[in-house]
Amino acid sequence: MTLFGKLLVLLNLALAMVLAAWSFNIYANGVDWTDRKDTKSTPPRMGQFAVRAAKLDELWKGVPPVQTDWLRERDQLAREEKRLADERVWYDKEIRYVLDGPAKGKGIREVDIASKDDPNTGAKKGQILLDNQGYPQLVPIRDPNGAPLQLQSLVEYNRENEGLLKEISDQIEQHEKQIKEANALTDRITGDKTKGIRGLQQRINDERAKNDEVIAEIKLVEPQLINTLVEAQLVNKRHAQMTKRIEELKKIKVASK
Fold first, then answer.
1. Contact by Cβ (8 Å): 97, 103
2. Could you tell me the pTM of the whole model?
3. Which residue of 51, 134, 215, 217 is most buried, as measured by CB atoms within 10 A?
């Protein structure tokens, strides 16, 4: 056997001794995980399982009272949640009524507030009054004078606003149409050179100018007309004289028939 082999054997022996000592130490000082209960020894020796089981039994003694309180509170919580769900349905219904209606003719209501302390119900001034079911009590809305107000829902007001806006739009459209017609009539009266429109006022002025020219021409022609009438009278007179003379000549048989 070589020296290296001898060293390995000694190393193996030393490791085995160390492991043996460790194993003995664990055996001698090991934790007792059994459920053994040695009450005769002093002090009593108990396994760790028995110790923990005893602690668990002691803890379980406090569970029933706590569980009873927990179940009672759980039932109370269930009732409160049901109450909350019912209130949510009631509030959603009232909110939908305010938003969608129909509230026309019925009016929107408001929450009633205590105006003074009431010793019978225990309500304080400024608190919300509740009805028999525990919901806020609703009363008609009134103006500062105390007269009831017939307020409508938001949808109904929006519908009325849309109708009013439609009427306003129609009126604006009609007004713009009338403005265009008025402008067109104004153009017909006053005229517009840019559009090539000869207005009635210009036509009247032109007719007046023509009338003035006609009057001026009449003034020029009138003397000639008078002269013509005078000459016509003279000619007629001369014609009558000639006719008379012809008759006289016929009598003396100078002129032929």
1. yes
2. 0.44
3. 51
